[in-house]
Amino acid sequence: MHNADAQNPDVTIDKAGDDIRDWVANHGRFAGSIGELMRRLGARCAPAGLPLSRISLLIRTLHPMVAAAGYVWHATEGRLEEFTRDHQSQSSEAYLSSPIRLVFEGSSGVRRRLADADCPNDFSILDDLRSEGMTDYIVLPVPFSDGRTYAASFATTVAGGFSDAQIGRLTALMPTLALVVEILTVRTIAQTIASTYIGRSAGRRVLDGAIYRGVNETIDAVIWISDLRGFTVLSDTQAPPVVLGILNDHFERLSDAISAQGGEVLKFMGDSLLAMFPVASLGGAEAAICAALTSARAARASMDLRNVERARHRLPPIRFGIGLHRGEVLYGNIGAPDRLDFTVIGPAVNYAARIEQMCRTLDRRVLVSAAIAEQAGEQLTSLGFQALRGVREPQEIFALADRPPPGEPAG
Fold this sequence. Notes:
The chain is of the alpha+beta class. It has helices at residues 19-27, 34-45, 93-96, 99-104, 125-131, 164-198, 200-207, 231-237, 240-260, 285-312, 347-362, 370-373, and strands at residues 54-60, 68-74, 79-85, 110-112, 136-143, 149-156, 216-228, 264-269, 272-278, 320-336, 339-345, 366-369, 381-386, 395-399.
């Protein structure tokens, strides 16, 4: 392993009990996160005879925006750095010139004795490690049960670097560390998938056991329903990739605005979006209503900026309507026994949908019910009593007014 890739390293691996390996096996899986595991592992190494000054771990993950997650523990401060890499990172120069890439691609390990005069300077990270006083550096594979391999690295500032016995202990630790990291990774991926596809709150409930049909509760919430204007024409006149891009653009801006105020996007329905602002979790009715109205304003502002960019490229603007109403809804699992949807249903949802449909008729972007206007904490513009489809009596509808962009309706 001296100054070369560690293919079948010639070191003695201690097969007897090892307190670090035993701790990882028996206690590591109870860590709340990989970051917590790294902090606790780093703190135990020096007292156990492994003089580690730096530990890092890089794993690929399953996330719509994140390709890999990294953790770096520094002994001097007991400090842990956490970072992520996007899906373009594997083509970056930093990754291509990294020893991590070699391990990901099948190397059994890479070691560099940094204090040696003849140590190759073939990876960009080595200069950084030397500047931190590191004398020895080793990268080892972290094999998962699905055949994928990730990487952990260890560095020390001890004169002379790692002993053969210490390298043996680190090598022997890898299968156990891999098992625990895989458990924590699968747990994180499950949370990511649940949050991505059914929402943060619903995802937590499902993972906590609300997995069967009939699990539901009645909650008070502000319901948001929005719809993309002119979608039928777009679908008929534009190529599918163009339509998909417009949909993604539309949903991204609305979802970001909703999430920023504590709202929960429940589902996308064609070109429509269903979301809620739970009264209890947001601190009361006025707070939930304020969050919904703030989100609506932010969504309009974000889309206005995007439409300025689209106009520069001679593209048509993206327009939408939003309907808001507050009321009680049934929140939980609905569907077939083996194919469920965690969502909200009830008259309040239908009412919000009817209000949203009036956006086109009244030429407004945001309309709200009297239940919203009564506790909005601000003056909204009454548009009078309107006949809503499926609602027996005309209902007073209000507009969220602002200064419109050129060519756009006021609300």
